[in-house]
Design a protein that fits this description.
Layout: H1 2-26, E1 41-42, E2 45-46, H2 60-69, E3 102-108, E4 111-118, E5 121-127, E6 155-157, H3 168-177, E7 182-186, H4 190-195, E8 201-204, E9 209-212, E10 215-220, E11 240-245, E12 248-252, H5 261-269, E13 275-279, H6 286-289, H7 296-306, E14 310-314, H8 328-334, E15 348-349, E16 358-360, E17 363-365, E18 373-376
Parallel strand pairs: 5-6, 6-7, 7-8, 12-13, 13-14, 14-17
Antiparallel strand pairs: 1-2, 3-4, 3-18, 4-5, 9-10, 10-11, 11-12, 15-18, 16-17
Helix pairs in contact: 1-2, 5-7
């Protein structure tokens, strides 16, 4: 019996490996010849600020080992189920910030809508937009507003070249609807953008600033890696973004492991972050995920390193990318927070959904859901 199980596993391993490798070879993407000039590129690849030997890219064999043999982490909370996050449906007018405010609405995964209106001029930004699902992955929940109903998008910021963050179909769709759209891509992706017909794109180096009206966007570090095909591992850069509007700073972390870069960002900015958008999902099992993905524990540490006033968790409940169940990252985070006796809903939209700000060491944390919003003023 044991021999039969072993033979079955080896056969399954062989067939899956062949499929994965075949698909990887099929997807080839262009590389910028001048990427070697980037301050972050050396020894044949892009690097993080901290040592990153564990972030050379997960091989198909490592992924298969995790999927077939584990080990799995224990549940983070009791009574976990496959229940999906609630999705609050939104109208197009809900997405536009009122005069004098910055509005932030979570679309699921790492896609966040950020709108700023000042003196009658509105600037709209999308982070890591993905409207459908990456290859071979199921989208668990719908968007809070149909993509056809989106208002004008001025900027798209892309954190890194992984298919759940850089979705070519979504970017081309947004380009078709927004001829003046500016797409900010990490360093090394100019040729990629040209070949994929993404239109106007601006490759980013650390500290680079892009502005429009009342909004300033600065490319910041992250602790991660990149790959779209087989031969381009860490040949495209990665990062995060600080978005400043009307005196408020919103930090979008993209995908990241925990490292000194959070303190580095705080030093670069020189003032507190008003709202940190930090990932907490696809964090299990920790032995496999910890170098590239922070979980609830590290996200709370990051808020202190960033000198953040508040934190809203993203990158959970949308795609089954880790061993964690859809709501597990949020429930894990929520059990670490304290909540006021009288709900604090200031700035949360809608304010009648039962969501209240929590607190951890003086940082306000909102256990929101897809379609929830926050108004900064």
């Amino acid at each position: 019996m044991r021999r039969g199980v072993k033979n079955f596993n080896m056969s399954l391993l062989f067939h899956i490996s062949a499929i994965v490798l075949g698909l990887s070879f099929f997807f080839c993407f262009p590389l910028d010849q001048d990427r070697v000039k980037s301050p972050s590129y050396r020894e044949g690849r892009y690097h993080n600020l901290d040592p990153d030997e564990e972030l050379q890219g997960k091989s198909p064999w490592a992924i298969l080992r995790w999927k077939l043999w584990g080990p799995k982490d224990p549940p983070a909370v009791e009574g976990l189920t496959d229940e999906l996050p609630t999705v609050f449906e939104r109208s197009p007018k809900d997405l536009i910030a009122p005069e004098g405010k910055v509005r932030v609405i979570w679309f699921g995964h790492a896609t966040v809508w950020i709108s700023s209106t000042q003196n009658g001029k509105t600037v709209n930004i999308l982070t890591d937009p993905i409207f459908e699902a990456p290859p071979f992955v199921t989208r668990l929940v719908k968007l809070p507003v149909p993509k056809e109903d989106l208002p004008t998008v001025d900027f798209v910021v892309v954190s890194h070249a992984h298919r759940d963050h850089l979705d070519r179909d979504t970017l081309r769709y947004l380009r078709s609807k927004n001829p003046d759209l500016q797409i900010l891509l990490p360093s090394g992706m100019k040729s990629f953008s040209e070949e994929e017909n993404l239109g106007l794109s601006i490759p980013q180096e650390l500290g680079q600033v892009t502005s429009k009206n009342s909004v300033k966007i600065t490319f910041m570090p992250a602790h991660h890696w990149s790959r779209m095909g087989l031969s381009d591992t860490n040949q495209y850069f990665w990062g995060s973004y600080a978005l400043e509007a009307q005196g408020k700073i919103i930090y979008f972390a993209g995908d990241t492991g925990y490292s000194s870069h959070f303190k580095n960002i705080s030093g670069r900015l020189g003032k507190p972050i008003d709202l940190a958008l930090l990932p907490i999902g696809a964090y299990k099992p920790r032995w496999f995920m910890k170098y590239a993905h922070i979980g609830p524990t590290e996200a709370l540490l990051a808020t202190k390193d960033l000198n953040a006033k508040s934190f809203a968790p993203i990158h959970w409940g949308t795609f089954p990318l880790g061993d964690d169940l859809p709501k597990e990252p949020m429930l894990d985070l929520k059990q670490r927070l304290s909540f006021p006796s009288s709900p604090d809903t200031k700035g949360i939209s809608p304010s009648s959904d039962g969501v209240s700000w929590g607190n951890k060491d003086g940082v306000k944390i909102v256990p929101w859901t897809i379609g929830s919003g926050i108004d900064l003023e």
